Amino acid sequence: MTPEIDAAMGRALELAAAAVEWGDTPIGAVVLGPDGAVLAEAANEREKRGDPTAHAEVLALRAAAQVFGDGWRLTGATLVVTLEPCTMCAGASVLARVARVVYGADDPKAGAAGSLWDVVRDRRLNHRPEVTAGVRAEESATLLRAFFRAQRGL
After folding, report:
1. Any binding-site annotation on 127?
2. 53 backbone φψ class: left, alpha, beta (φ>0; ψ -120 to 50)
3. What is the pLDDT of residue 90?
4. Any binding-site annotation on 24?
5. pLDDT, mean of residues 97-118
6. Active-site choice (41, 45, 57, 139)
7. 89 marked as part of a ligand binding site
8. Active site includes 57?
9. What is the distance in angstroms between the CA of the first residue and the CA of the last residue of the chain?
10. 15-54 pLDDT, tens digit each
């Protein structure tokens, strides 16, 4: 793991923790440019915005597309996210042409980077980003477990 990836995951974890303040599932995402510089970052805002598509990954990819590339292609970019992307977010990563997806905790219930589905490696699609799983996974999983325990009053 490079220092840039570690720092980006640290920031994504901070963003994830902040999402709890407005009642969202603690997921954070950071998009790095090909040079490792931060292009954009976001936390989950589904509850905050009342928008089912306001996942951290989608928000970060949208913001990165505004400052990098040709308006939507994020060629050479890396998406760093605390939880394995769902089908929507994995699809958005493929469509945005990111080079790499780096995530923390696996999501056996909804993950689409190998756990339940494997959208990012589907050979029928015209782009397949490199995937690195398990980066600071326990920190990500701890945030998620604490959030869902609190939601259930445990």
Report:
1. no
2. alpha
3. 98
4. no
5. 97
6. 57
7. yes
8. yes
9. 35
10. 999 999 999 999 999 999 999 999 999 999 999 999 999 9
